[in-house]
Each structure stands twice: as structure tokens, then as C-alpha cells.
């Protein structure tokens, strides 16, 4: 496959079609990205060669069984290291079977993995989820001409794709990542008198739980849609901070599929809100880049904020001025690192994050960009 950079932030990709990839020369290193590992597994399952997927220490601790099981049911073969975790060796086939797969946990990564494998199967592949998860995969596949359909089934959502149909090339406009945008948004909300504008942020409704939650907390966030955004809607967001304005919120489990990566930022807002916030049904935080549920609880308590875990719920009692003045481990998790650096800007004493270099995973310029906005984040505690 040929990938060429044509301008800053712009790439031209010459694809090889269904079943068209060549065997890799070595191990495919996915770094810290669970998304890369799981989606690549779906693509590789439809090719007649073996490939090894690996990654960093954090990725090697994350579950892969949830994608291995459906891909094996379609005919791919796997050799795993332990408990179905990477490194894994995938041996695909050009005779993948179509599949009807019910996922117990709504997961966009699992769904998209199976749909990508389904492109290489003869027939219709369907994934059934208990509730809708993020739908970037379906939107992108439709843009390439894939026959993707959705249907309600007994209170669940079924997403199907027709296999072995040719795909057409297309232009894709990638919006700003709302998961990353959540951090400067919360930082602005915690700074009295601040006003920050973020341009072309993705506002896909399966991803905007964080904006809905912050507005429920009393956040002042204006949204101006960007015209001609394409399959993925985007908007310019204007955020205004007012000290003491945020109030506690009780978020039901229905928020989790569209907010799961934004809970670290939301937890920092809850830490400074009036009252006790409860995030329900967030057990999936335990199997992210770290055990985010425990990392958030422990870090907040260390910073002087009352927090506890009740089964799969996270409860946070806000305070207008958290104590801070502590060192917090990032747990090799970029979102945990960014979250507590943001909280540190609202504390009586600064917070030092150990291992904040992991922020490079998703936002290499985070420290510099936040300082440009006026945040007191030192280069010694932020990512380079």
C-alpha cells in the first residue's frame, strides 16, 4: 500500500482492494493503540498470510479475546501470548465465513473489527449490540461504497455489511478529536473568566456525550456547525469559564458507549463541581490503557478530592479548590496524564504527573498548546 504525505495534515493513500495486502516484513507494532490492533486484526483476517501484532506494555495488558473470538468463528487462526492478549499471530484466509455476532458490551472497536473482516467474507456479516456504540466505522465504510445497513432487533442495534464488494476511493475530512478536545474544554470551564474556541471538532452524536454531560453540569459551551463537513459532522466550539458554576451530575450507564474515553476529563470537572457526581456503569474503564477507574479514584483522593468506586460506578464529591500538591503516576495512560495536569491548573498547589511523556500517544504538542491558551503547565510535567 502506498501512503504519501501531500501537505501538512494531508495524505494520499493508494489502496490495493479487498484481499490485496502483502505479507509484512516484520512485526506490526501498534504502539499504545488498541484501536489499531483491533481494526488491523479484522483486516488481516481476510488475507492468506500470517502476521504478528504487538505493542507497548500498556497495550499488551489489554484484552483482545473480544475480537479474537468472532474472527476465529469466521475462519481466521490465532496464536496468542497469554489470556488472549498481544503479541498475537494472525493467519487469515480468503474464504472467511459471514457471521452473525452478538456483542455483550457495546464497543465500536469490536464492531468495526468484525465489519472490516466482513468485507472479506462472501455474504452478510452482522454485529448486534445492546445499545449503539460509536459509528465512525459505518460512516467511513459507506463513504467507500460498502453496503452497510442498520436495524433495531429486540431493543438492540444490528449493523450489517455485505462482503466481497469492490470499494471506491474517496476523500475524507477528519474532524478534530472530541476526546482530546475535552481536556482544554474542561480546563477553560475551571478557569474563571476564560474563553476558548476550538475549531472543527467532531460532533458525531455517538461521540458527544461529554458535551451533553458538561452542559448538564452548567457549562457554557456554544456550538457553531461547520458547513460541508461530510459524513462526520463538526463544529466550532466556544467555551466560557465561570468559577463555581459547575454542579454535580448523575450520568446513567447509557452515557458510557458515547463517553467512555472522555470520563477522565469529566472526572476533573466533577472534582471542582458543587455536590456529588456519579458516573454509572463505567466498568469498561478498567480495561483501557490502564485501569482508569482505579487511577481516577486514587489520583483524585491523593489530590484532596473525595472519590470512591461502587461496583461499576464512580462517585466524586466536588470541592471548589482541590488541595493538589501531589505526584500522580500516569500509569502509561495518556488520558490519565492529561486529566490530572488539567486538574492541577485548578488546585491550590500544582500536581506533578509522573510519566506524562505518554501524552505523545495522542497529542504530542499538548503541553505547548495548553500553555499557549494560558494554562500553567510546565514542560517538566507535560509531554514535550
CATH homologous superfamily heading of the largest domain: Enolpyruvate transferase domain
What is the level 1 CATH name of the largest domain? Alpha Beta
CATH fold description of the largest domain: UDP-n-acetylglucosamine1-carboxyvinyl-transferase, Chain
Radius of gyration: 21 Å
Number of H/I helices = 12
Q: Which class of secondary structure composition applies to the elements?
A: alpha+beta
Report the average pLDDT across residues.
Answer: 94
Biggest sheet, spatial arrangement of strands: 3-4-6-5
Provide a brief overview of the structure:
This protein is of the alpha+beta class. It is built from 12 helices and 19 strands.
3D structure, described in words:
With 384 residues, the chain is an alpha+beta fold. The protein has two domains: 161 residues, Enolpyruvate transferase domain (UDP-n-acetylglucosamine1-carboxyvinyl-transferase, Chain), CATH 3.65.10; 195 residues, Alpha-beta prism (UDP-n-acetylglucosamine1-carboxyvinyl-transferase, Chain). The strands form six sheets. A four-stranded mixed β-sheet has the order 3-4-6-5, covered by helices on one side. The chain has a four-stranded mixed β-sheet with strand order 7-8-10-9. Helix 1 links the parallel strand 3 and strand 4. The mean pLDDT is 94.
Amino acid at each position: 500500500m502506498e501512503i504519501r504525505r501531500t501537505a501538512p495534515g494531508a495524505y494520499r493513500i493508494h489502496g490495493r482492494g479487498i484481499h490485496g495486502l502483502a505479507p509484512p516484513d516484520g512485526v506490526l507494532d501498534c504502539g499504545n493503540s488498541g484501536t489499531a490492533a483491533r481494526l488491523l486484526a479484522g483486516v488481516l483476517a481476510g488475507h492468506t498470510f500470517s502476521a504478528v501484532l504487538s505493542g507497548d506494555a500498556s497495550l499488551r495488558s489489554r484484552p483482545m479475546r473480544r475480537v479474537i473470538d468472532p474472527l476465529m468463528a469466521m475462519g481466521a487462526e490465532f496464536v496468542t501470548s497469554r489470556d488472549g492478549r498481544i503479541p498475537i499471530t494472525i493467519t487469515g484466509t480468503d474464504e472467511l465465513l459471514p457471521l452473525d455476532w452478538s456483542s455483550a458490551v457495546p464497543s465500536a472497536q469490536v464492531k468495526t473489527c468484525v465489519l472490516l473482516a466482513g468485507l472479506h467474507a462472501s455474504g452478510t456479516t452482522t454485529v448486534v449490540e445492546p445499545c449503539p456504540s460509536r459509528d465512525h466505522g459505518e460512516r467511513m465504510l459507506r463513504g467507500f461504497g460498502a453496503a452497510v445497513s442498520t436495524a433495531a432487533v429486540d431493543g438492540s442495534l444490528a449493523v450489517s455489511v455485505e462482503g466481497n464488494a469492490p470499494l471506491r476511493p474517496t476523500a475524507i475530512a477528519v474532524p478534530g478529536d472530541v476526546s482530546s478536545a475535552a481536556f482544554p474544554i474542561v480546563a477553560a470551564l475551571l478557569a474563571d473568566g476564560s474563553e476558548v474556541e476550538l475549531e472543527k471538532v467532531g460532533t458525531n452524536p455517538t461521540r458527544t456525550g461529554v458535551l451533553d454531560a458538561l452542559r448538564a453540569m452548567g457549562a457554557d459551551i456554544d456550538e457553531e456547525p461547520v458547513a460541508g463537513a461530510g459524513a462526520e459532522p463538526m463544529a466550532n466550539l466556544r467555551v466560557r469559564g465561570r468559577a463555581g458554576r459547575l454542579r454535580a451530575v448523575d450520568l446513567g450507564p447509557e452515557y458510557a458507549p458515547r463517553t467512555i474515553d472522555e470520563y477522565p476529563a469529566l472526572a476533573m470537572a466533577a472534582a471542582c463541581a458543587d455536590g456529588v457526581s456519579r458516573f454509572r456503569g463505567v466498568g469498561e474503564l478498567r480495561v483501557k490503557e490502564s485501569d482508569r477507574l482505579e487511577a481516577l479514584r486514587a489520583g483524585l483522593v491523593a489530590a484532596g478530592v473525595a472519590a470512591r468506586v461502587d461496583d461499576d460506578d464512580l462517585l466524586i464529591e466536588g470541592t471548589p479548590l482541590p488541595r493538589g500538591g501531589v505526584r500522580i503516576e500516569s500509569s502509561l495512560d495518556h488520558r490519565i496524564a492529561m486529566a490530572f495536569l488539567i486538574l492541577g491548573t485548578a488546585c491550590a498547589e500544582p500536581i506533578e504527573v509522573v510519566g506524562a511523556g505518554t501524552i505523545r500517544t495522542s497529542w504530542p504538542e499538548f503541553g505547548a498548546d495548553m500553555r499557549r491558551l494560558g494554562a500553567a503547565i510546565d514542560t517538566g510535567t507535560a509531554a514535550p
